[in-house]
């Protein structure tokens, strides 16, 4: 007996089609959300979807997002259903509903549903990926000295288990003046016969540099053209700070694995994320947390013959989650699509450009993020002469701006405007920075 039969024969109405909350059905269900005008193509209507306090200028959404209306409504809808009858609601939906989130992610990314696993964060995705890679003693992971704590530690922990070694290289001297050539040639020169993994970050949250992933993928492809399939190099990307900004199709990026939290720039529910894996790379990653999806469970029970399992069924960690958040993720992607990926990218870039151009005119402030739009995205890092990152962020706070300091050994303050910000807010933040830097 498979789980589907087991649940239906235990009297629970498995298989009932769930009417996922739409804005109008949520409106009826919702008791607390104020009514908000719909998106009308203006940035003001986008801003109005959020309950963000504007007491301070919010310039750090890159860390942890506020939920837009559709996400709030969907969470509220599911929460109510779970509170009314948790087991019944879960059993009615858990085997089918996550297809909705994976399909929305796939549509947004230009991928297929089967290539997407749901996680709780970038951190979880990278940890599952790096600890699941089938590496062995003598294999080498090529990484960089610029990566985030999570990539560094996930690689360290994985290498301690499988005996691979990690080579970390500096890809550039000065991020603000880095070039595509400089980065790709450093990576190309560092690839050795032993390299099996190239682990990079799309947009660095320290200095704001955006990696030329396509060009790096070309370098990896060149190296692979000289190798047997068994020795192939896989390109793995922490994509969290480009995801929800850059209007890309994942298949054009050329990477093999891509992990991102969806609770930052995507504006999905807090505690959600994805791993995308190219079909011909699935076999390189073993699962760490057992999935609760149909195939793996039925194969374990013995009701389905053991055979290949799609990535999304095998790699989405099982267990009981904060399902009201996980099952509302599609609304984050739908929200991005309703605004338009192209529009989101151009607006974020317009505001980021304002920040960088404003900083360029300040004598005591230096941008760490390249001006080149090809090597930058929504994060704008900078240094203020004579002040630490923490001092700058504190001074911003006193002036009514929520900025953030990058959590790296060499901490850098950042201003990261996004689609909820106005030009006036960016000007306000720049004026604050001008005053802060003069008083340094
Ligand atoms: C580059 C980078 N990767 C990963 C993370 C962790 O992200 P998450 O909160 O989704 O685990 C961060 C944190 O902001 C980050 O800057």
**Proportion of residues in extended strands:** 5-15%
In CATH terms, what is the architecture of the largest domain? 3-Layer(aba) Sandwich
Main beta-sheet strand count, sense and barrel state: 7 strands, mixed
Number of strands: 13
Radius of gyration: 23 Å
- Please estimate the helix content: 40-55%
Any idea what the shape is?
A: globular
Mean pLDDT: 93
Find the structural class using helix and strand composition: alpha/beta
Gap from first CA to last CA? 71 Å
Count of domain modules? 2
Q: CATH topology of the largest domain, what is it called?
A: Aspartate Aminotransferase, domain 2
> What ligands can be seen in this structure?
pyridoxal-5'-phosphate
Poorly predicted sequence stretches spanning 5 or more consecutive residues: 10-19, 21-34
CATH class of the largest domain reads Alpha Beta
Number of helices: 18
- What spatial order of strands do you see in the largest sheet? 2-8-7-6-5-3-4
The H-level CATH homologous superfamily of the largest domain, spelled out, is Type I PLP-dependent aspartate aminotransferase-like (Major domain)
